[in-house]
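Need residues for this backbone.
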């Protein structure tokens, strides 16, 4: 069971360096390791909230941060794979938006996962085998009308909302499978909940 002492951090970005950001929370700076996609979007001085994973080892403690709950949950799944530690998991999450990474696993695209720094073919295949049934179904087209092959899949706010209500990634994805994408976030969440009770 993964326990997490620091669940999220909200403050302003004070510094950026080498794949980490320092978030100032009332005068206290928290260094947070983030995926490359998050790092590139982070702007000094902006207010931000990261969902965090607090990794504790004998000699050190590290915080890994994600702007969405779904991304954090995917990271937590990845680090349970044999041979995939937090650094390799952050490298996988750096391949693209978390929804693209989730989609690649759902589509059993181990070559996409293998592009991550420090992740070999065997580790990539292990990720697919361990998690293809735990990340939900692949999305062919996102709600902006872009295909997964040509555009970045957007973070799904309805998926985030269901996970905040206690659904795991797989169940939340399945709950939304038959709900029309053109509905508002609130309508999609309501429809998904009705479908599952």
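Answer:
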């Amino acid at each position: 069971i993964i326990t997490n002492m620091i669940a999220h951090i909200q403050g302003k970005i004070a510094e950026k360096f080498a794949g980490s950001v320092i978030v100032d929370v009332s005068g206290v700076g928290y260094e947070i390791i983030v995926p490359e996609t998050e790092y590139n979007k982070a702007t000094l001085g902006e207010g931000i909230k990261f969902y965090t994973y607090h990794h504790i080892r004998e000699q050190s403690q590290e915080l890994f941060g994600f702007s969405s709950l779904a991304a954090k949950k995917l990271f937590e799944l990845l680090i349970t794979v044999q041979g995939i530690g937090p650094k390799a998991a952050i490298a996988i999450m750096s391949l693209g938006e978390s929804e693209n990474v989730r989609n690649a696993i759902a589509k059993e695209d181990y070559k996409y996962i293998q592009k991550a720094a420090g992740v070999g073919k065997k580790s990539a295949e292990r990720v697919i085998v361990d998690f293809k049934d735990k990340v939900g179904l692949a999305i062919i087209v996102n709600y902006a009308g872009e295909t997964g092959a040509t555009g970045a899949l957007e973070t799904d706010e309805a998926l985030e909302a269901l996970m905040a209500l206690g659904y795991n990634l797989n169940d939340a994805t399945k709950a939304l499978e038959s709900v029309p994408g053109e509905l508002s976030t609130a309508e999609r969440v309501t429809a998904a909940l009705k479908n599952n009770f």
